[in-house]
């Protein structure tokens, strides 16, 4: 809804913005694409707690039978907190952000990209690196993450060792685009992901 009508942000909190019918269709299609990629292998699903990502997860799950072993609602992969942006303040803050840099600028009462980087790194290090060693959980071959464009870019920044300058040259993918990361321990360098 927020992409279709930016005025919604004046009356509805970012976490409560829902999917449009088009967004729901995109999520169903994304689920089918993911299913084609992983086949019958097992999955853990990690989802941002925002309403639109929860709705996306429900639609993605429709492509799967019993392959999804557990769904985690994970606050650390939520969208960046932009603070209380109203009217002309939004334009001023965006101008300040372009001077400081999108990664470094912290919105008043909100977060910087660096803040989101830190919390997603905490999630990755605490959770994903140990996902298959948790007591009581079955081991899985795949992890599916349903999050937001900026958040995903910051996760990619960590995994690929991008500098803030490189981050500034990369833009968000489209809604319900699918990134596939494959772990390859034979890769040399900072990241085993390709």
UniProtKB/TrEMBL annotation:
Record-given protein name: Histidine phosphatase family protein
Domain of life where this protein originates: Eukaryota
Binding site for substrate: 12-13, 52
Position of the signal peptide: none
Alphabetical list of Pfam families matching this protein: His_Phos_1
Species per Swiss-Prot/TrEMBL record: Alexandrium catenella
């Amino acid at each position: 809804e927020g992409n279709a009508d930016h005025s919604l942000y004046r009356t509805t909190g970012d976490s409560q913005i829902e999917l449009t019918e088009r967004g729901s269709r995109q999520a169903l299609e994304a689920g089918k694409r993911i299913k084609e990629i992983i086949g019958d292998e097992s999955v853990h699903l990690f989802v941002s707690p925002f309403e639109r990502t929860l709705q996306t997860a429900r639609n993605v799950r429709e492509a799967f039978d019993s392959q999804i072993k557990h769904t985690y609602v994970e606050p650390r992969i939520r969208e960046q907190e932009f603070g209380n942006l109203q009217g002309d303040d939004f334009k001023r803050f965006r101008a300040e952000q372009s001077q400081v840099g999108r990664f470094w600028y912290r919105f008043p009462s909100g977060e910087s990209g660096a803040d989101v980087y830190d919390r997603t790194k905490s999630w990755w290090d605490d959770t994903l690196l140990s996902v298959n060693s948790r007591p009581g959980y079955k081991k899985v071959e795949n992890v599916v993450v349903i999050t937001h464009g900026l958040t995903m870019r910051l996760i990619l920044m960590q995994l690929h060792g991008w500098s803030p300058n490189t981050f500034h040259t990369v833009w968000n993918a489209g809604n319900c685009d699918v990134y596939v990361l494959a772990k390859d321990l034979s890769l040399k360098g900072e990241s085993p992901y390709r």
